[in-house]
Each structure stands twice: as structure tokens, then as C-alpha cells.
């Protein structure tokens, strides 16, 4: 969380929250949703400004209800989630591939999930900023168990690292990452928000 953001919260503690105007899509893009987009259930326009995208990513957090938001100075802008609060990318590096979120933070994977539509989700610990519900100007950082939709550009790479056996009665699978075999388990997409405690469409 940026220092100037925390200072503004102390100076202006009662700025109304904002809902519906900002979204995170399935490819990890922040999208601005004006009144027309909201009224017509449209995804909104991707934010192209690099510095603004980075500012949102640095000040992305969650509250105890499971609502994710962007702390824009003194104002809390709640995020509409197309899928999950995090989008995972497999990024090559000198020390081997990394799993990173749309904010550039590391995912320490525990396993993967596959839903009824063939989407892949990475489960693991992610360093998150948490808001204090008693004092909204207080944030803590902690590694939390969460879930990230795997970007569709990385599905082939994931498939090459996976072994799946599926029939009418059973589902078994494993995924190799960093020299370890991690489990792949089935899930229904509607179960994700309850299991990982997040709200896709926050409201006041």
C-alpha cells in the first residue's frame, strides 16, 4: 500500500465507497465500467495507462467480508471480479518459471483445480493486503490461501506439465511444478467463491 494512500486515509477518513466502476477480467486486465457499461452489463474498457495499472496493483487489497478493492487515496473502489481475485501467469525466469499474479506477486502453489468448463485454477498462498475493519486506515500484509484463474495463454504449458485420468466416476490428476507433483482436483465454478471466501460482485 502506497504511503500517500495511507496518509490520505488518515486525513479524509469518511469518503464514500465506490461500487461497480472497476472490474478485473479473466486476463488480469483492470477495466473501467462507466454508467452505460454497468446498465448494459458490459465488461467495460481496459485501462491502458501503465502507471495507473501499476498504482491499482500496488493498492489492491481485501476486507474481512472477502470483498476486493483498490484503495484510491481516501476512497475504496470495490472490484467486480469476472472469475477470481487473482489471475495467474507462468513467467519464465533465470531460475525457472514463476507463477505470478496480475499484480506481479508470487503464488506459492499447493495444487490446481479444473472446473466444468475446462478452466484451470491455481491454489496456493499469496501475499495479500488486508484491511482492518475497526480502523480502515490500518492494513496488514499476510500470506493467505487463495485461488487464481490460470490465464488462457498458459493452458498449453500447464497441459504439458500435467497428467489427468478422468472417467464417469473418478477424476485424478497431477501437475508438476518446481520438481514436485501437485494434485489436480475437480471443482464446480460456483463453489469457488465460497471455498476461497471472496465476493465476485461486492455491494455496500
Explain what you see.
By secondary structure, the chain is of the alpha+beta class. It has one domain. It is built from 5 helices and 14 strands. The strands form 2 sheets. Strands 8-7-11-10-9-14-13-12 form an 8-stranded mixed β-sheet. It has a 6-stranded mixed β-sheet with strand order 3-2-1-6-5-4.
Quick overview of this protein structure:
This protein has 204 residues and is an alpha+beta fold. An 8-stranded mixed sheet has the order 8-7-11-10-9-14-13-12. Strands 3-2-1-6-5-4 form a 6-stranded mixed sheet.
Helix/strand structural class: alpha+beta
Query: What is the total number of structural domains?
Result: 1
Number of extended strands: 14
Overall average pLDDT: 89
Low-confidence regions: none
The neighbouring-strand order within the major sheet is 8-7-11-10-9-14-13-12
The percentage helix is 10-25%
Order of helices and strands: HEEHEHEEEEEEEEHEEEH
Count of helical segments? 5
The proportion of residues in beta strands is 35-45%
The shape is: globular
Biggest β-sheet description: 8 strands, mixed
- The N- and C-terminal alpha carbons lie at a distance of 23 Å
Gyration radius, in Å: 18 Å
